[in-house]
Design goal:
alpha/beta; Rossmann fold; 3 domains; 6-stranded mixed β-sheet; 18 helices; globular
Length: about 500
C-alpha cells in the first residue's frame, strides 16, 4: 500500500443505542503512513466509531472500505484478518499469565502440533519487547507489572499481528514520560512502514508531537478534519467543546486557613521513605512525580488502604493512624482513587447509590435506608455539580468518563470530607470536563476544604496548585511555591537530577 493512499474510508456512519444516537452520519478516513488523531469530549462518539471499525460494535447505517474494498466487519477476529488492530485504554490482558503468553495468546508456537513451545514463545516475545526497547522478562506475570508496563505489553500484542491499521485509544494515559517517548518512537517506525494509525487522546500536548491530521467529533457528529501543520490548539478546542475555553486552568487563590493535614516521616519499605508534607484549609497542594515515584502508595497509606511501617498522620492537629478506609471517612478524609472504575465507583449501581455509599453511616445511622432521602440527597449533588445524567437511577457504567468522575467527587462531598486526596482527578476525561472538575476544586477550597492533588500532568499541577511537592523514588525531594515554580526545575527534581527547596518542614 503506497504511502498516503487511503486505507480506511468510513462514510455516513450511524449507530444507535437505546435512547441515544451515538454516531450521526460520521465520515472518517485514514491514510497509509499517517497518525490521524480522533478527538472530542467524552461521549462524542470516538470509541464507538473505532469499535465499529474493530468489529466490536455493528453499524446501523453507512459504509466501510478497507484498501478500496467495501467490507462488513463481522467481529474482532474478522477485523484482525482485514489488518485492523486495536489497543484499548482498558487493557484486556490476563493478569495470571506471563507476558509472553499474553502477547501470543491464541497464536502460541507449538511442537508436534500439540504442545506449546514455551522456549520459542519466550524467544519471540523477547524479540518483540526488544523492538519496543522494553526491558521486561517474557516469563514475568502480567499482574507483577506496573500499569505503564502493562500498557506496553498490550501494544506489543497488537503489533505482533502485523496490522496495516492500528487503533490506539489513550495509549499514554498510564505511561511515564520515558515510556511515552518509547511509544512515540515505535509509532513513527510503524508510520515509516506504511501503517495507518488512529490515535485517540485527551492530552492536548500530544496533538502536535505525534499527529498528522485531526478529526473532531462532538455529540456523535462529524465537526471537521484539519491538517495539524496548519491547525492551532485554540481552534481544535473550540471545535471539540462548541465554545471557547479562555483559561484551561481557572485557579482561584483563596485565603489559607488552619493546618488540615500533616505527614511526618511516613515510611513503608519499597513504597516511600520519610515523607513529610503539609496541607492547609483553602489550599490545593500538588504532588508531582514520575510513574512509580510513590505518590499513590503514599496516598493509600494515609487513607488506610495500605499499612505504613512508621510515621505520623495529623488531621487538624490531632494524630490519627487510619487502620481502615472507614476510619478515614469518619475523620472527614476522602480519597479519589486514580482507578475510577475499579475503586472509585461501583459501575453496576445507579448514580444515587454511588453518591451516598460513603455516607451511609452518617445518613442512615440505623442502617434503614430511606429511598426518598437517598433520592433527595443525591439529586442535590447532581444539581450542584451539574452531573449529566437523565436521572439518579442511571447506572454509573453508562456515564461518560468526566461524568463518572463528578459522581466520585460527589460521593466524597456527600461523606463530609474536609480533607480530600485527589489522585489523577482528570485522567482520561476530555478538556471540557477537566475545566469543570477544576471549577469544582475551586468551589471546595472556597468553602475551606484542603486538597492534596496527585497528577502526572505538569501543566495541571502548575496551573491548579498553591504549592507543589515533588517525589522521586519514594522520597519527597522538592517543594515549589505557586508563581515561582519553573517547569524545567520541577521535571529535573522528579528525575532526581536536582533538589527543590525542601527540608521536610513547613
Amino acid at each position: 500500500m503506497a504511502q498516503n493512499s487511503v486505507v480506511v474510508d468510513m462514510r455516513g456512519i450511524v449507530k444507535d443505542f437505546p435512547g441515544v444516537r451515538a454516531l450521526d452520519g460520521v465520515d472518517f478516513d485514514l491514510r497509509a503512513g499517517e497518525v490521524h488523531l480522533l478527538v472530542g469530549e467524552n461521549g462524542a462518539g470516538k470509541s464507538t466509531l473505532v469499535k465499529i471499525l474493530a468489529g466490536v460494535e455493528p453499524l446501523d447505517k453507512g459504509t466501510i472500505s478497507i484498501n478500496g474494498e467495501k467490507v462488513s466487519v463481522r467481529d474482532p477476529a474478522h477485523a484482525q484478518k482485514l489488518g485492523v488492530g486495536i489497543v484499548y485504554q482498558e487493557m484486556n490482558l490476563v493478569p495470571y499469565l506471563t507476558v509472553a503468553q499474553n502477547i501470543f495468546m491464541r497464536r502460541e508456537p507449538v511442537r508436534a502440533g500439540l504442545v506449546v513451545d514455551v522456549a520459542e514463545e519466550n524467544r519471540r516475545a523477547r524479540e518483540v519487547l526488544a523492538s519496543l526497547n522494553l526491558d521486561i522478562e517474557p516469563n514475568t506475570l502480567v499482574r507483577d507489572l506496573s500499569l505503564g508496563q502493562q500498557q506496553m505489553v498490550a501494544f506489543a500484542w497488537a503489533i505482533c499481528h502485523n496490522p496495516r491499521v492500528l487503533i490506539l485509544d489513550e495509549p499514554t494515559s498510564s505511561l511515564a514520560e520515558r515510556e511515552v517517548q518509547q511509544l512515540f518512537a515505535t509509532v513513527r517506525q510503524l508510520k515509516a512502514q506504511g501503517v495507518g494509525i488512529i490515535y485517540i487522546t485527551h492530552r492536548l500536548e500530544e496533538f502536535f508531537q505525534i499527529g498528522d491530521r485531526v478529526t473532531v467529533l462532538r455529540d456523535g457528529q462529524f465537526i471537521g478534519t484539519m491538517e495539524l501543520e496548519t491547525a492551532n490548539l485554540d481552534s481544535i478546542i473550540q471545535m471539540m467543546v462548541g465554545r471557547e475555553i479562555s483559561e484551561m486552568y481557572p485557579k482561584e487563590v483563596t485565603p489559607t486557613g488552619e493546618e488540615a493535614l500533616r505527614l511526618e516521616g511516613v515510611t513503608r519499605k519499597g513504597a516511600c521513605e520519610d515523607a513529610n508534607l503539609v496541607v492547609h484549609r483553602g489550599e490545593v497542594v500538588g504532588l508531582f512525580g514520575l510513574v512509580g515515584a510513590g505518590r499513590t502508595e503514599l496516598a493509600r497509606m494515609v487513607f488506610g488502604l495500605d499499612p505504613m511501617d512508621s510515621g505520623n498522620v495529623f488531621l487538624f492537629g490531632e494524630s490519627v493512624i487510619h487502620l481502615s478506609p472507614s476510619a478515614a471517612v469518619d475523620s472527614a478524609l476522602g480519597y479519589l482513587s486514580e482507578d475510577r472504575k475499579g475503586e472509585g465507583l461501583c459501575l453496576s449501581l445507579p448514580v444515587k447509590e454511588n453518591i451516598v455509599r460513603a455516607a451511609l453511616n452518617k445518613l442512615f445511622p440505623r442502617w434503614l435506608v430511606s429511598p426518598a432521602k437517598e433520592e433527595q440527597v443525591s439529586k442535590r449533588y447532581v444539581e450542584e455539580l451539574s452531573i449529566a445524567t437523565p436521572s439518579t437511577s442511571r447506572l454509573a457504567v453508562y456515564l461518560s468518563g468526566g461524568t463518572q468522575q463528578k459522581v466520585v467527587v460527589a460521593q466524597w462531598l456527600c461523606a463530609g470530607s474536609e480533607v480530600l486526596i485527589l489522585d489523577e482527578p482528570t485522567r482520561g476525561i476530555d478538556v471540557g470536563a477537566k475545566v469543570e472538575i477544576y471549577h469544582i476544586i475551586n468551589e471546595m477550597t472556597r468553602k475551606g476544604a484542603a486538597i492534596l492533588m496527585i497528577s502526572s500532568e505538569l501543566p495541571e499541577v502548575m496551573g491548579m496548585s498553591d504549592r507543589i511537592y515533588v517525589m522521586h523514588r519514594g522520597r519527597i525531594c522538592g517543594e515549589f511555591s505557586r508563581g515561582e515554580a519553573i517547569a524545567e526545575e520541577i521535571v529535573s527534581c522528579a528525575f532526581g537530577t536536582t533538589k527543590g527547596d525542601y527540608n521536610g518542614e513547613e
